[in-house]
Amino acid sequence: MLLTRDGLRPATSGTTIAEVLRAYARLPMDKADHRSFFDSLIDRVKQGRRVTPMPLSSEFENASREDYITFNQEVAPDGLAFVTAWDLEASLMIVKTNAGRTFLGKQRATYACFVGGPSGAFEAAGVVSSIQAAFGVVDELYRAHQRIMRAFD
User: Which pTM value belongs to this model?
Assistant: First the structure.
């Protein structure tokens, strides 16, 4: 089962990372994106959430800070970032996509969000205008989990 914005669903349908990479015109993550990403991540850690900037895989569960930095530097040129909520067994993949140019020629970007589970399949979770808004997907996963747990109490 996959915990999504709509609750628990079977993870049979979905997409792979390779399909996402083929489908989107991506932009590389820049320093401002990294700062915003890690600031948002630190905020979630301060809230007591068990999140890390890695994909959902047992090999990354006990990774060190150096592993986090190395991994994120490797995927940043592809416009990717991952946030894993280990206690929910869910991973958020953020893809920085090309949203064209403004009238004055400035590059625009949007962030496509995908939620995945242990099966490796990802479900689309929306497109937002900032990384901070993408972390709202993680917040919604925790709220959905709390609602489900209250229903069973």
Answer: 0.84
